[in-house]
Specification:
The N and C termini lie far apart (71 Å). A hairpin with a 2-residue loop joins strand 16 (211-216) and strand 17. It is elongated, with a radius of gyration of 28 Å. Mean pLDDT is 82; it is low at 1-39, 56-72, 255-272 and 432-442. Helix 7 (473-483) crosses helix 9 (498-505). It has three domains: 6-71, no CATH class; 75-257, Jelly Rolls; 275-539, Rossmann fold. It is an alpha+beta fold.
């Protein structure tokens, strides 16, 4: 058996040499590399392959297990490695930040509460032809969830495109038209691809035919139809960060890759660009014995997707740690929970000795449970059920997790307090196909008065999304109460109680009811139950 394994590399320009570099193969051991021009490479490669096949009489089996090569038939239109300011990047100190070149890096910082800092140069070519834009960047300091990246096709400060990443490992493709931002690819979470703060991220945008393909750290992350440039300026932008850029390269033509690269197995694709996820308030609250369970179910197998449920859970976890004083190790966070996950966390009807029960300190621990996802009533028993991601809603009595078991087992914990926050409805309106939700209204649960329950909707109402904020409507306003604590803290004692948060989210003029009517034309009224609604959630 013979193994052909190697890579072709060609420098820009049709007369530049190309190299075939074999990877440790005996078959090619007498030749270190072959050299061709681009005009010759295809003919030579085919001839080379035919010669190999002609050698079959010398081998019982000739197995070409891997042929992998990349042909860079391109012209470099622009390159800046930032050893000087020959391209006039507009260096200086401004009210909103600073732009400098130091030690072969372009450094942009942005320090104000709003806006951004960006710098660009003019590069003129035909964007209808294929091209590539590539850069490498590293966030030095800054705030979580604020973006930095490439800005391209610029005509002015109100018309441009951006390809951005955050230190929390999200990316987005966006355009600004007449000062209004429009998402092209929403914020997408890729922790296996995007490096966090302090590490380098390579961004590559390829225009191939009628599409734009995006790569981060040489991994494919998405495709979008190409849209005409507003102008011919290109550069970088930052928000609330200091970032250093290694280089900017623009090439005409694109890399032709003949082998199929292993594509990124994308995790749950979620939007993550909301004002509640910016500048999360830090409080003086510390609750070292508190335990939280946070669940976000987005990717259902047999039910409609709940677009922002995972977002909701991640944001809730951040607020629990930064605002409500929970230790990260005391937060049981599960995304796309199965029935087995529910039973492990909360127990079963016959066994309440769950993971949560084994984690709390009886009499000392405050328990906080958050769930965002589908709820549904049983078609036969009319009881309420949480819908695990693999559940068939038509057989929810068999594959769902009963809410009565959930509340019964919470009541057996012996915790100092139990608070449940639900961004889910149990009407079945968003789960069942071809069944009227009015026929299957869930029976109300019997819940101990010692358990505080704040729900996103009442009765047979549905729970809506706030698409512009990439969250469930209820979750958005729940978190917004912490950000607008001066408004939510009605008695001005610098403490937010559960009832004050409820009054904020349920406000008929500014909260969930108003925005659900305005955006979706539906009625949605959050509900609060329990006898300790004055429980303090946070002190500032």
């Amino acid at each position: 058996m013979a193994l052909l394994d190697g890579v072709f590399k060609c420098r820009p320009g049709r007369s530049k040499p190309c190299f075939f570099i074999p990877t440790g193969t005996d078959l090619l051991s007498q030749t270190a590399f072959f050299q061709w021009t681009i005009d010759e490479v295809f003919v030579e490669f085919i001839n080379f392959m035919l010669k190999l096949l002609a050698m079959k009489t010398s081998f019982n089996t000739l197995c070409l297990t891997l042929i992998s090569f990349s042909l860079f038939a391109q012209t470099e239109l622009f390159r800046d490695d930032f050893y000087d300011n020959g391209n006039a990047w507009g260096l200086g100190v401004y009210d909103y930040g600073e732009t400098a070149i130091e030690n072969g890096k372009l450094i942009l910082s942005h320090t104000t509460e709003s806006g951004s800092n960006w710098s660009n140069v003019g590069v003129y070519f035909d964007p209808e032809e294929d091209f590539e834009i590539e850069s490498s960047q590293r966030q030095i300091t800054g705030e979580d969830n604020y973006s930095t990246g490439l800005v391209y096709g610029i005509s002015d400060s109100e018309n441009f495109y951006t390809f951005s990443v955050t230190s929390t490992q999200y990316f987005k493709l966006e355009k600004c038209v007449a000062g209004k931002y429009e998402s092209m690819i929403p914020w997408t979470y890729l922790p296996a691809v995007i490096n966090a703060e302090g590490q380098t991220n390579k961004l590559l945008l390829k225009k191939i035919g009628s599409n734009v393909k995006l790569y981060i750290n040489d991994k494919y992350v998405g495709t979008k139809a190409f849209e005409p440039f507003f102008g011919q300026k290109f550069g970088f932008w930052v928000q609330r960060n200091t970032v250093e850029y290694d280089y900017l390269v623009i090439r005409s033509g694109t890399t032709t890759v003949t082998n199929t690269v292993s594509q990124v197995k994308q995790q749950t694709t979620t939007s993550f660009y909301s004002d509640v996820d910016q500048s999360i308030p830090i409080s003086k609250s510390r609750n070292d014995d508190a335990i939280a369970v946070v669940i976000g179910n987005t990717d259902y197998v047999k039910a409609k997707k709940v677009n922002f449920a995972v977002n909701d859970s991640r944001s809730m976890k951040n607020y629990l740690m930064k605002t409500m004083g929970f230790r990260e190790g005391n937060i049981l966070h599960v995304e796309n929970a199965t029935k087995g996950d529910f039973e492990l966390l909360f127990g079963t009807k016959t066994n309440a000795h769950s993971k949560l029960a084994n984690t709390i300190r009886p009499g000392l621990s405050d328990v906080f449970v958050f769930y965002s996802g589908h709820g549904a009533p049983g078609l036969n028993d009319k009881q309420g059920y949480f819908v695990p991601v693999e559940c068939d809603p038509n057989y929810v009595e068999l594959s769902g997790y009963p809410t009565d078991v959930f509340y019964q087992n919470l009541g057996k914990l012996g915790a100092r307090s139990v608070t449940v926050v639900l961004d889910a409805c149990f009407s079945g309106a968003t789960v069942f196909e071809n069944i009227s939700p009015l026929v299957i209204k869930a029976k109300p649960e019997t819940v101990s008065a010692d358990i505080m329950v704040l729900s996103s909707s009442s009765g047979s109402e549905v729970s809506s999304w706030y698409n512009d904020q990439s969250h469930g409507m209820f979750t958005y306003f729940f978190l917004k109460a912490f950000q607008e604590r001066e408004k939510a803290d009605t008695n001005r004692d610098k403490r937010l109680t559960l009832n004050e948060i409820y009054q904020f989210v349920a406000d008929n003029n500014y909260g969930v009811p108003y925005w659900s009517r305005r955006i979706h034309g539906i009625e949605q009224h959050p509900a609060l139950s329990g006898n300790v609604t004055d429980q303090v959630m946070v002190e500032f």
